[in-house]
Amino acid sequence: MKVRKSTTRSGRSMSISSSEPSIYDQEYYTYHLELLAAFSAQIQQLPPFNAEFPNEEDQEFLVALAQLQQQPQGVSFLEQGQILMCRIVGTYPHLMPLLYRDLLWFFGGDCLHYMPDDEIAVFQQLDEQREDAKQQQIPFSYKEARAKSMGMH
């Protein structure tokens, strides 16, 4: 059962989750979980989350973020991720510079409204490269491909 389907520019269907995730999908998923954990660790050092007595809404947000990191990949995982990413934009805009753009792409849906078209094109191209490697069963590192496409290599 495929969970998140998108279509590449070439019209090919792809997903980030299935009942038997490939090594390509697992690396992609793990990479984004690492970004989510890093983001969570960073924001806990900043207001309003580092207050001696944070308010209930802020505490609930951190709990939801922690639960998301523990939740198995699936439809509700993506939905909860979208809700939390959009909540950052609306409730904690000062944290946007710390939010990895990759997470907006990864969770998709309404999160894509906060990404310019050229940025979306880069992430779509990365997904196409990953899917091509998966189809051809050739080695592929999402991290390396991302760094290369963003001029970091």
- Poorly predicted runs are 1-15
Query: How would you state the average pLDDT, rounded?
Result: 87
The span between the termini is 36 Å
Quaternary structure type: single chain
Largest sheet: number of strands, sense, barrel closure: 2 strands, antiparallel
Q: Helix-strand pattern, N to C?
A: EEHHHHHH
As laid out across the biggest beta sheet, the strand order is 1-2
Number of strands: 2
| Number of helical elements | 6
Integer-rounded radius of gyration: 16 Å
Which outline best applies? Answer: elongated
Helical proportion, percent range: 55-70%
Fold and architecture overview:
This protein has 153 residues and is mainly alpha-helical. It has helices at 23-43, 56-70, 75-91, 101-107, 117-136, 142-149; strands spanning 5-7, 13-15. The protein has a two-stranded antiparallel sheet with strand order 1-2. A hairpin with a 5-residue loop joins strand 1 and strand 2 (13-15). Helix 3 (75-91) packs across helix 4 (101-107) and helix 5 (117-136) runs antiparallel to helix 6 (142-149).
